[in-house]
Specification:
The chain is α+β, with helices and mostly antiparallel strands. It has one domain. 26% of the residues lie in helices and 21% in strands. A four-stranded antiparallel β-sheet has the order 6-7-8-9. Strands 3-4-5 form a three-stranded antiparallel β-sheet, covered by helices on one side. The longest helix is centred in the last third of the chain and has 13 residues. The N terminus is likely disordered.
């Protein structure tokens, strides 16, 4: 388990206010009720898509300056939750994983990582995460999360909502026997995933799995110019049938940027929202085939240099951390409408019409992500590996290009990993 000895000295006063929920899919059903992103509940009453596949993505960022010879860092934690609902609206399958990217920075604004650095998820770390030694029940992180996922299977979202006691610990002794960690964020993720579930073709008997790929890049600070660092986390949830064909897929991505001063000061983004949740507000800055420079992305995420400096000055005494909450978007409803409009598994049909020219291709980021998710249906991992991409990661296949003209390289990696993970059922 990753630890940072200087977090308590620098970040502790600000942690409670800084580690906030930041982004997720929107509702996939037809309910007109507005949603509260902090609770995952709908003020208009629950309306869950029976037989739907749902995914929620939440993120938080923290940062610390170098301190007494120890490196500083910028850290992004992204928790991904996927569910499949049965025909009665009960949870038929659930899986959870967390990507944790900690980017180290030296006192002179240098980078303590390279683009080749690997960032395994908590589930991928297995026993290497190190929770078992500190656990009162002798269980590793993935074992406790699997126990939580197994516990919610067969329950309705309403039944799941009350399983945590004050403080986030499991209230039911049956769950507490296999999971003693704070489950509040996982509970929130499950409720959100249920709320935005969309009927795409997945069945309760299919295997549900996640694939998460992470990468980072950056430039060191100099006496003349600030440095920057950026992390990218691509998430895929798939259901796979007995023949190994994808029956449904959900895709999202989280991108965060940190500014580095030559004096060692680390400035985190003021907020983080997944690309899907941003909807039409996301206009570029992809790591593969990027339309914007890194500086442009940082300005878009953090505001102008003047604003960043102002935030830096305000935060000096409070610690190096920052995040804001974001409202839920409703783009999953578009995906549900497309799924019901006669589209074939190959992504062709009456509903597959190219939109007006767009800076990134044929539509907003979430529209193109949904189009690629539709193309995935009916295909195997071998089919996905054989997809031809150009130098910028864009598909060369005309059928795919009909709805997706942006880079899908990271989608391919994430979906491939998800299909491989589906070879072993979580619960």
């Amino acid at each position: 388990m990753q630890t940072n000895r200087h977090i308590p000295r620098i970040l502790a006063p600000a942690l409670a206010a800084a580690l906030l929920f930041t982004g997720c899919f929107g509702r996939g059903g037809a309910s007109s009720g507005s949603s509260d992103p902090m609770s995952g509940s709908s003020s208009g009453g629950a309306d869950y898509a029976a037989g739907g596949t749902g995914m929620s993505v939440t993120a938080k960022v923290i940062a610390a300056d170098p301190f007494e010879g120890e490196d500083g860092f910028g850290q992004t934690d992204v928790t991904v939750t996927a569910v499949v609902l049965d025909q009665e609206g009960r949870i038929a399958a659930c899986t959870i994983d967390t990507a944790q990217l900690q980017l180290p920075f030296t006192e002179g604004g240098g980078l303590g990582f390279t683009e080749a650095t690997q960032y395994p998820t908590k589930r991928e770390m297995g026993t290497g995460y190190g929770l078992k030694e500190a656990s009162s029940i002798g269980k590793e992180w993935y074992e406790q999360v699997d126990a939580f996922c197994a516990y919610v299977v067969g329950k309705t979202p309403e039944q799941v909502a009350g399983i945590a006691a004050p403080g986030g610990t499991p209230a039911d002794p049956d769950l507490a026997s296999g999971c003693t960690i704070d489950v509040s964020q996982y509970l929130e993720g499950v409720l959100m995933a249920c709320e935005n579930a969309v009927v795409l073709g997945g069945q309760p008997g299919d295997r549900l799995a996640l694939g998460i790929v992470s990468s980072a890049e950056g430039t060191a600070a100099t006496a003349e110019q600030s440095g920057s660092a950026r992390s990218l986390i691509t998430c895929a949830a798939v259901t796979v049938d007995e023949e190994g064909r994808i029956t449904s897929a959900r895709l999202d991505e989280v991108e965060t940027g940190f500014s580095l001063g030559y004096d060692g000061i680390v400035t985190p983004p003021s907020g983080v929202t997944s690309k899907y949740a941003q909807g039409a507000g996301y206009t570029g800055g992809m790591m593969d085939g990027a339309d914007l420079t890194m500086d442009a992305v940082l300005n878009d995420t953090m505001g102008s240099e003047t604003a960043a400096d102002a935030a830096l000055n305000e935060d000096r005494m409070a610690g190096r951390s920052g995040s804001t909450d974001s409202t839920m978007s409703d783009h999953a409803g578009d995906l549900a409408a497309d799924a019901a409009s006669g589209l074939t598994e190959e992504g062709e049909g009456a509903g597959e019409t190219a939109t007006a020219p767009h800076p990134m291709g044929v539509g907003d980021w979430h529209t193109q992500a949904d189009a690629f998710a539709r193309w995935l249906r009916g295909r195997t991992v071998e089919d996905i590996r054989e997809l031809q991409l150009d130098e910028e990661g864009r598909p060369t296949d005309a059928d795919v290009l009909t709805g997706t003209a942006m880079s899908v390289r990271n989608f391919v990696k994430a979906v491939t990993k998800a299909c491989e993970n589906a070879s072993v059922s979580v619960n």
